[in-house]
Every structure is written in structure tokens, then in C-alpha cells.
Design goal:
Blueprint lengths: L16 E4 H4 E6 L14 E5 L2 E6 L4 E9 L8 E10 L3 E6 L5 H11 L15 H5 L2 E4 L2 H38 L21 E4 H4 E5 L11 E8 L11 E3 L1 H5 L4 E3 L4 E4 L8 E3 L4 E3 L3 E6 L5 H10 L1 H8 L9 H5 L2 E4 L2 H39 L2
Parallel strand pairs: 3-6, 11-16
Antiparallel strand pairs: 1-8, 2-7, 3-4, 5-6, 5-7, 9-18, 10-17, 11-12, 13-16, 14-15, 14-17
Length: 381
Amino acid sequence: MNNKPNTRFKGFNGLWKLQTLEKICANFKSGTGITSTEISELGGYPVYGGNGLRGYTNTYTHNGEYILIGRQGALCGNINTFSGKAYISEHAIAIGENNLSYIWFLEQLLLKLNLNSYSESTAQPGLSVDKLKKISVYVPAKEEQVVIGNFLRILDNNINLNIFKLKLLRQLKKAYLQQMFPQSGESTPRVRFAGFKEPWEIRKLGDITNSYSGGTPNIKKKELYGGEIPFIRSAEINADKTQLFLSKEGLENSSAKMIEVGTILYALYGATSGEVGLSKISGAINQAILAIKPIRGYDANFIAQWLRRQKSNIVSTYLQGGQGNLSAAIVKELTVLTPSKEEQAAIGHFFHTLDTQISTHQTKLSTLKQLKAAYLQNMLA
């Protein structure tokens, strides 16, 4: 704990002052008990518990801007905020600002404190209000708190906006996967691009693709690793980099196989069984991956999306409780409904574009979260 941060806005100098949370927070206490029968999907005021919104009721206990700290359970210490009138249940601790503090600075300060680490039980974790009040923290003057709090809140809003966009894109893709491929017992999809009317034809995946799996060099021979050839494992089929690299000798002295960018990668073993990727890198694959290359007239993006759509059916049919391994023989025997080459290309391109948008938002979200963590570490003492 330091008495000034590493990074500050211009115009602010001097040391921060050590204070207890009790001194810089107003209304530091648990909420009021409420029964489940008093909570409904409709009502005049939201009801907040330790994990956020629980429903609605016709009365309220708090009016203003408050930070809520989850008080009980595995998620105790989690932080939520609200503005306006609301009912705060006994499972949450509500705190507000006073003349020494700014509400949105307090929010960031509490996030950095990781209050879950102050829980007092492992069987049924819980937080003591009296214990939290005694936590000492360094804080600046209120004017500096306002600048820091508003800055980090804007960053949080950008993070939440990207989370929302990413959720919508994933829901959109899920809906399109259902509508742009034929339903069970049907030979055409319910949503098609203009100009395509012919029924789709049944093919075995093994008849329209060539496939092969890889292998793993002897892990005890360290000289086989540390080279420049990316070594792709099943958890990395959608990644743009790998953790392991093979030497040329390692590739030549193993059954690992090379693949190129755009190859369909199908995870056969373990927790990732049934996952599908379109390789973003050229490298070698291990034995847990089946590389699939469509023959002429068939589109890789289309087949990859079809396999993704079929994942739950494949897993439930061939794996016990979602656990176990698939085999190349099983995958090759899968039947695929396929349209013309032109319609495959249109569908494949559509989903590739959608996947690119999802990937872009994932990357942006990851970057924003890393940025927020760095600012939180350096802008708070």
C-alpha cells in the first residue's frame, strides 16, 4: 500500500491520506430482509441482493447512488452499483459517498481491494460489516477522486458496451446457424440467399473431404522442442498463437503433421471434443486434432459452420455425458446436407464475416479489460 499512485492526472500533487472505509463511506450497513413472495417480475422498484437484481417489489429502502457489496456465498465481495430508488436485501451491504469521498471512486477502490479475500468462512463464505469498516486505504482529496472515478467509469462503460455487443453477435450467429441450415427431416433451410432454390444433397463427410490427424514427439527429448514450428494442440485450434514450438528435427521424428492457414481443425480428444476451428496459423498438429480439407467443389467455411452447428448432436450421440474421445472414423461417417458450390460459398462467407466481427469484439474486450486492470493498479495508491 502506497501513499500516492504511480500514475496521476495533471494538476494533482501531494500524498494521499490513510483512512478507514468507515470514515469515507456513508450508510455502511446490510440491507433489509425480504421474502421471495414479496418479489415478482413486475413492481415499482428493483430488488437487489448480493449478486445483483433479484426482481421487483412495491417498496424501496434506498434512494440515491449506492455501491452494493455481496455479503454471503462464494461470490461474496462482488461489487454492483445502482442509482435511484431500490430495495436492498439483507444479502447485500449498501454504501454511499460522504464529504470525503466520491461514489464512483469508491467503486473502483473496492474493486481493487478484492473484498472476497476478507471472507471469514470456507464452508459458507461471508463478510463482516464491522471488519470491512476497519479496512484502511489511501485516498486523495475529493476533487482528484472525481477525475479518477469518472475516467475509470467511462472505461467500464466501454467494457460493458463491448460485452453487450459480443453477446448480441453470438446470439445472432446461433439464430442464423439454426435458420440457414436445414432442420431435422428437411432438405432446404428456412432462410436462404436470393437466387438459391434447389434442395440440398446428402453426403458423407469422408466423401467430400480429405483428413488426417497428427502426433506428438517424445516429450522427454527437449531438443525436439523450442524451434520455430508452431505446435497446435486441441485447445488452440482457434488461437492465433501456440504455447509450444517444434524444431525441424522434432517434426521429422514424430507423426506430427503440418497444416496451413484456413484448414478445418476438429478436436477429437478430451474436454474440447467436438470443437471446430479454422486454423489462423500454419504449423503442426498433435494426435488430438483431425485436419479436414474439402475436395474441389466444397467450401471450408461452410463445412466448419455445419460441424459447429452439429456439435451438440455429435457429442450427445458419441460421447458419454459429454466425456470421452471421438475418432477420425466417426467424423468421416457423419452425413452432411450440402447445397451447390455457389450457395456454400455464400453461406461460408456470411458466417466467416460474422465470426470475424465476434473475434474483433473479443480482442477489443480483452484489450479493454487489460487496460482497466493496469489503470486500476497504477491510478490507485
